[in-house]
Amino acid sequence: MSCGPASGVPARPLPGTTLGMLGDEGFRLFFPLSALYAALFPALWVFGWGFDLPFATTVPPSIWHAHEMLIGAFGAALIGFMTTAVPEWTDTQPPRGRPLWYFAALWGIGRAIGVLGWDGLGGLGAIADLTWIGALLVWILRLSWRRQTDRLVAFAFWLLLLGLCTGAARIGFFMGDLALASTGVHLAGFAFLGLLGLVLARVTVPVTNLVLDPTERRSPFRPHPGRLHLAPGLVLVAMVGEAAGLSPAVAGFLFLAAGAAFVDRVAEGFVGWSAARTEILMLAGSSLLAGAGLILAGSARLGAPWSEITGLHVAFMGGLGLGVFAVFSIAGLLHANRPLGIPAIARIGALALVSSTVLRVLPDFGMALPGPIHGLAVIGWTLAFLLWIAAYWPTLSASSQVRQVATPGCDTPDSPPNPRRRQAAE
């Protein structure tokens, strides 16, 4: 996450066309792709196809739906974030142009098949998805080797887990093993939660300090070091327990522990009156919803009177969804050399996303509201990401700006002695 433009480096002109601008950095291309797919696919699934998919015969549409929201919508967000943030963390030039369009093509092949639930071409979609995950992993490992840094190893590890879980799910799709397919998709969701924990650890510190001191002369906020990797670590333990087939009670307690670790991160938002800033609320809210969802899922394993799926919806829709939305909103400004200050319609979008999550799970707790609750939840979700696109599209696609050549991040190993960047790196 960039804390602002670098100083003392020559400027370079940005591309003069919209397509050139979108291909100039990963966040400019993949954040809108992710938001658009996140907005449209659920609407098609509910309103266009009535909770069905045109070519889904072997794999239930609900499993396809979960796969597409995770690997499709959140996968594009992952590509955009990593191809932008990792070069900043390693003080290297980001991929521009053709490599980004290759990633987009691979991602798009998977979505063209997944949006229809096309079982017959599922193998092609699997190859495309596993290829972009593998390419992202290899690229990160190469940068780590070139820069002789171990600060990307955790991200590489979770990307590897994501690829393995996605591969397992796709094998289940191909073989008609619905239990394996469902477990693989759920584990892929947990892998995204692990990545979310890592991203929050990297992003929350510099953003909080930027909110507290926009001049960047001080770093008044210093996180508790024990929180940095606690949530991802406990999510990993829960994943191992799930894959090992532990009893529902044992797995339930592991979910509770992982959820508690995410909820504990909310304390990082207690920074006085500045806690009311939208940036802080979104980051803390993402941790809260991810943790609450895991706690609900664990409680269901222990006999609570609601479905485990209820908890997963809160964790994935609310926790991952709001986390992705927060990264879109914050990085969409800072990486474009804009000051913090979330646009009003994007704030409304964040509220719509949280409201959508609440509406989706209310019936599971016996709170039957009048009207088509699932339809209203989808409308809120779709509205959230469309509002974000409306707010940020001019910034992401504008070609009249001037950009710095170097794009150092908050925690680059060889960045100039900026106290905030040094703190984030540690």
Give the H and E element order: EHHHHHHHHHHHHHEH
Mean pLDDT: 89
The percentage of residues in β strands lies in under 5%
Head-to-tail CA distance between termini: 15 Å
β-strand number:
2
Number of helices: 14
In helices, the fraction of residues equals 55-70%
Radius of gyration: 20 Å
Main sheet specs: 2 strands, antiparallel
Strand order of the largest sheet: 1-2
* Quaternary structure classification: single chain
Q: Which class do the helix and strand fractions yield?
A: mainly alpha
Low-confidence regions = 1-10, 400-426
Describe what you observe in this structure.
It is a single chain. With 426 residues, the protein is mostly helical. Among the domains are: 120 residues, no CATH class; 169 residues, no CATH class. Helix content is 68%, strand content 1%. The chain has 14 helices and two strands, in the order βαααααααααααααβα. The protein has a two-stranded antiparallel sheet. α3 runs parallel beside α7 and α7 crosses α11. The longest helix is centred in the middle third of the chain and has 35 residues. The protein starts with 10 loop residues before the first strand and ends with a helix. The N terminus and C terminus are likely disordered.
